[in-house]
Every structure is written in structure tokens, then in C-alpha cells.
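Exercise 7 asks you to align residues with C-alpha cells for two separate proteins.
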Amino acid sequence: MSYTETKEKLEKTDILNIFYNGCKPKSEHKIGLEYERLPLKNNSYKMVDFFEDKGVCNFLRRFSDEHSWNYIVDEYNLIGLKKGHDTITLEPGCQMEFSLKPEEKIEDIKNKVTILNNMMKNLLDEFDFSLYEYGVSPVSTYKSINLLPKRRYGIMASYLWGILSDVMMRETAGIQVCLDYESEEDAMKKFRIANMISPFVTAMFANSPIRGGVDSGYKSFRALAWLNTDSDRCGFATKFNKDYGFDDYVNTVMNVPMIFISKGSDNIKVNGRLKFKNYMEDGYQDNYATLDDFKLHANLYFPEVRLREFIEIRNHDCVNKNMLYSLLAFYKGIFYSEDALNQVDAILSKFTYQDLSELRYDVPKLALHAVVNGLPIKDVCRELMRISYVSLNEALNNEETYLEPIMEFVEAGVSPADVILLNWNGLWNKDINKLMRYLKSA
């Protein structure tokens, strides 16, 4: 099959313009947040279902009625809400995600999260469930969690071949941080360093050791699930080559097997039978590649760090006790200071691609007790945290104070998961109620 004269062929330059158009002057650089939480019933701590009377669907309907948010629908199903630039959407297991308009100040993001939480409080009490800041479902496992009735989720669930892909989709909750870039050079430098730093940050914020009511043997079971989802579309999107550019990233995405094509109300299953580059050249079943097709395909690519009109860093467990803002501050201190970024680059460039690939596989089990090339990563993490703290302090915005909740852990060489496990095997005596009270406490 080939393009006819009546079809306008998608060119790579059309795709590259997505990234070039994302370049912004430094004065306009902001930080963005996508923040998933687990909706758990107050008594059993099981995941809340979409369809039940006091379930997530009816909760969103009521919230929309009370606060005038607009529906996001898939066919006839309510799958989220939108107001201005902010959205409340649902992941495959009904994990609830806030995606907030990027802001220059972390305080503005915190205020928005606080406002939304306060808006939801009475309704959550009425529906008898809570939103927990934790990386994996602590009681329910994927076999008892129904898939959200969003058409693409069903296609993804049947396609993703990793042994823990269902865990990833239905059980996990993470945090994504979005950063701006000034130019292709700036973007690719940040992209390279964001990839190199990712296993260290996963370790620092590991927060999902208890799954299915027992100690899973991993400090970040969420990170383990991503390791076992689909190696064609997960992992590092670069081998840390300093010459890597927008064109290279596009080539990487174009060589990922396609899952499906969306045309109007139809989703056409491809199931890995061709790559996007082949679709661009030859089409598929009388369909021809468009820019929207590429954007969909790129969104079904799940690396540790994803390049869009901004840089999306994806590798963090959901965390509680204000460590959400520690995560934002950590990245802001490093990636929005050229001096801090260069210091981090010098530290991480000592490690090879192989070193960091092996670390990525060690971190889910060991977190800050992992070793990279013979060096305890907790020592590296302390230095990374110090660089971010100094950078924020020098900016004179008092944002270094947001680092304090996680710095206490990093200085002690432990992750949030280590504290949970210490109590789980000690004072809590493996009592799930005590874990949940701890997770819910401020």
C-alpha cells in the first residue's frame, strides 16, 4: 500500500516542529505536575470501583455538579473532568490524577492542590473513601480491580505483554514532573541528565513496599511493575549520547511498535504488527499517518523520561507528608540552574549507560541501599540533594524549605519505604490499619 496523490504525506519535519515549538525563553520556564492517587475505601482499603453506587464515576458527577467542572467522556463514559488548564482524570484502575497548569512557583501548585483537596473533602467523606498518596494498591491486586471503561485501556491491557503490565495499569500511582526548555541544545541536555538521574530519584522516593497486604520484598513495587510492562516502550529513551537531538528522539519513537490507530470513533488495533515509520511510509488499512497519529503513538511510549513540548519525568512513586513538593523542588533546583545542572552532569557522567541500566533494575528492591559501580547510591543522592538545596537557596525564593521532608530521609540513607518496613515489621506488627493511618497522616 502506498500514498495516493490525493493524500498529503506526514513528513518528519511536521513532527520535529512539535519540539521546536516547545522552546521557550528562560523567563517563561515553569514547572508542571501530574499527580496520581489511590481511591481506597475507608474501612477495607480496597480500591474503589468505577461503577458502584459510591464509586468513582458518581463521585466525579457530583463533583462536577457542585463545582462546575466540565465532563471528559469516552463514548458514553465519564472518564474525567476539566476546568481551564486543570484536569482530574482516571487511570486504568480508577487511580485519580490531578494534572495542573504549570506554575513558576511551587507555592502556587501547592495552593492549587490544597484547594482541590478541600473542595473534595466533604464529598469524599460522603462517598466513604479517601485518596491515598502511595505507590501501589496496598490491599487489592489487579485481579480484583476492574478496568476503567475507556476504550484504549482495553486495547492496551490486551496488548502489553510484560508479566506485571496489569499491575502497572490497575494498581500503581505515580507522580510526573514537567520541565520547560529554551532550545534543542537545552532540551537534550536536560533530557540526558533527567534520564541519568532517574534511578537515583526513584530510589529516594521509593514508597510502595506493601502490596496485597504483605511485604512484597521490594521497596518500590511500582518501579518493579514498570520494569515488567513492555521493554519495547519502557526504560531509557537515550543511551546518554551528548549528540542526541530532537531528530534522534523522533527516530526512537518511530521505531516503537504501534498498539492501535485512532480514527474518529474507531480504534484500529495494530498490536505491534508495524512501527510508526512503516505507517508513515505505507499507511495501514487505507489509513494514512497524521500528526495526531504520531502524538497518540508517542503517548503510548512510556520511557522513564518522555520528550514533548516539555520534558516529562515519569519515574516516581506517589509520596505523602509533603514530599510531593520536595520532588518538585528537587528538580527545579537542579534543572533551572545552569551551574547546578553542570555539577550534576559531572557527577552522573562518571557512570556508564550499563551502570545506570543495571541500577535501574536494582533500585526497585534496594532503593537507597543499591550500589552503582561500587559506590553506594545514598552517597550520590546526598550530593544531588545538596546541589539542589544550594541552588534553591541562592535563588532567594525560600523554596529550599520544600526539600526538608525528603532531606531528612536522604541524610539518613533511607527512603520512605524503609521507614514503612521498619514499622511494619516492628511496632505495627504487620497491621494494615496502622499502615493506612500512617499514610493518611499529614
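Second protein for Exercise 7:
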Amino acid sequence: VALPITTLPSDDCYGVAASADGTRMYAVGNFTGIYASSDSGHTWSQAGSLAGSWHSIACSANGRIIFVVPSSVGTIRKSTDGGLTWSAVSGSGTWNSVACTADGSNFFTNNIACSGNGTYLAKLVGGGISVSTNAGSSWFSINPPSASLSCVAVSSDCTRLVAGVTGGLFYASANLGATWTPITTTNQFWSGAWMSADGSKFAATVNHNGSINGGIYYSSTSAQPNTISTNSTICGSQGSAVELQYIGNGKFMPVSSAGLLWAN
């Protein structure tokens, strides 16, 4: 679902982050400062007085601890009070992204995605995706939806992922990248992504490029387009349940469910 962006100073957005429940959101883009929303992105206002243009943003699960990296050479900044005050937490450098653990105690750069305690990580490598299950000590490649990925976000165990393609679609996977489902229908210039630790909510930003509008997109999980299939995968959190109806030709259709479910 595309959220209103009328209260942001520009639709040329670079990055988005949110609290675990998706209520508190932060955005950076082709505008000055950090913008915050307390109503899941429907309205926005500038958070604090931090000046400059910022390229990527991350926040803790409670939405209070925030990290941002500058659009050009500079230091990574951190806020522990929802963006009111900021301090430098790195030396000067050129940074392409930032992500942080759920408690905000650690942050990651170099296109690494994290939404848990830092044990499970995903990163973009040459347009593809690699995953670590041991806090970055070792990595293995997973199947990407395209060879031209521009952003990725993951659940706390990396089983659920979303990824955007430069000048392409936005995809979701419920099975560690074994299969992917396109969840948009229009090619856009995806620039950043966020996902809650349980995988139930995700958001993404889009650059304004020529006649293609940018902005922020936000969604909660729902049935995926290819759920009716002979080879789809359905997964869920502990305690989830789904009732399937056989419709012939080796295909099943979900008719009821409880709890958080993802399908590919």
C-alpha cells in the first residue's frame, strides 16, 4: 500500500525505518534533516534539528534509538531520544547504508540488513544476497529474485526477506530465498527497505526518477499472489495454523488461517 507523502518535503526518498509495530517511522531522502511519523507514515514532521541530507536510516524496535549515514562524506550519527539530539559514532567516511539490532546496541554498514540480535544477517553482494547465521563470521549465497538488487530487509531469522530491484519490482520470500513473489506491478527505483523482526510488516522507499514518482510504501503481510500452486511454500510463526482446500489438479487453496503466515 502506498502511503501519503504530502507532508514530506520531497518524494525522492532514500531510506525508511520503523519501530517493531510499524507505528513510529523515520525517513530520509533528497531533503534536509530526518523526518518522523507517529501514525504509520500518514503524516510526517521533522525530527529534531539535524541538518544535511542523509542516505540511510535504521532504528531500534522501540523506535527510540536511530542511526543515520550521510549522503556524502561524513560521520554516522546516533540518537537515543527519537531524533531530538544526535552524536557521532564513527569517523569520517563514505557510507552506503546502515542497519541496527533490535535493541539498538550495534549497527552495521556495507549493505547489511538486520532486524534481530545480530546473529542472522543478510547483505547485498554484487546485486545478489548472502546470509550469515553466525553474526557475520561466515556467509552463504541464496537465490536472488534478480541480478540487480538495490535493497534488502529481513526478519530476525532471515527466513523472510523483501528485496527491491533497481528499475524493477519489489519481491518477498518466505523460505530463505528459495522462491520469490513479486508484490508490486510497476517498475520503480527502489532505494531502501525495512522489515519487522517477526516479518509481519515491511516498508520501502523509492527514488524519484524522471517521470517515475518516488515515495514510501508500507505493508503488512497478507496472502501472496501465487499461494495456489503445486510447489508453493507456506510458513508461519509458532502457533500459526492454516486450513487448505483441495481444488484439483494437485492444487490447494487456503480457506482460513490464524496467526502470522507467509507464502511463496
